[in-house]
């Protein structure tokens, strides 16, 4: 039986338990932390962007510093007071849910292989782009680089910046299944919006997973592989996954930012200590074309081919 032909969503809505076994993951991937377990005592820091304008006052300096130290330690940060209108966010969530509520045959007309137009999401993308540029500026500044060190490479067309909308249906066997397997994001920066269900988990150490508690009016920012290489490994691209639950479907919207295709991802001299360079330079287009050859990114493997001995 071709599993690709069976949609998890259809399976979930018909509660055909006989087929659920076909979606069970290998045992080493079974989640031991539930979707609503956020009580590890350690949580991803929250940073307010109320001082996000670049006027070099003390609050801005402190926010940039905090952004860098959090991304060095966690690879993830949550931002509040980000300036993105609540209406823009609500509208995007509603439209995405409406799309997922369409009949399966209709959704399959836009299956992954075809070019999806940006259409209605353009407003949301503009807002995400503005926020992403603010954060990239802050990271550059916090690392002691010129403000525009990263952002000058992100052209207006944003040719390979993309949005992925995930909707995870309820699952009768959440202890044996995953919504999204463990992976790192290959792009430069991800801005993730999640609803209030919970399910995102970040790997903190070997086999240690931390659930990211949903906070209203916040975005989750995470460093992608490209920014890890660009910062000589200072900013961390951290493995994460999405777990599912028995009762509630969950929506998440990931905005992946990428530089222009011909950008050479090479760490600046300011970040080279004692001559140590972690990765050899590559272009984003080379990295992207390699990724497209992989069917699925598992764990954090995509950058390995550029690792220097
Ligand atoms: O659903 C989530 O919270 C995670 C989504 C994600 O990691 C991705 O789309 O790359
Ligand atoms: Fe991801």
Automatic annotation (TrEMBL):
Xref: Pfam families: 2OG-FeII_Oxy, DIOX_N
Keywords in alphabetical order: Iron, Metal-binding, Oxidoreductase
Gene Ontology terms for molecular function: metal ion binding; oxidoreductase activity
Domain Fe2OG dioxygenase: start-end pairs: 159-259
Cofactor(s) the protein needs: L-ascorbate
Record-linked SUPFAM superfamilies: Clavaminate synthase-like
PROSITE patterns in the cross-refs: FE2OG_OXY
Family: Belongs to the iron/ascorbate-dependent oxidoreductase family.
Official protein name in the record: Gibberellin 20 oxidase 1
Source taxonomy: Eukaryota, Viridiplantae, Streptophyta, Embryophyta, Tracheophyta
Gene: GA20OX1
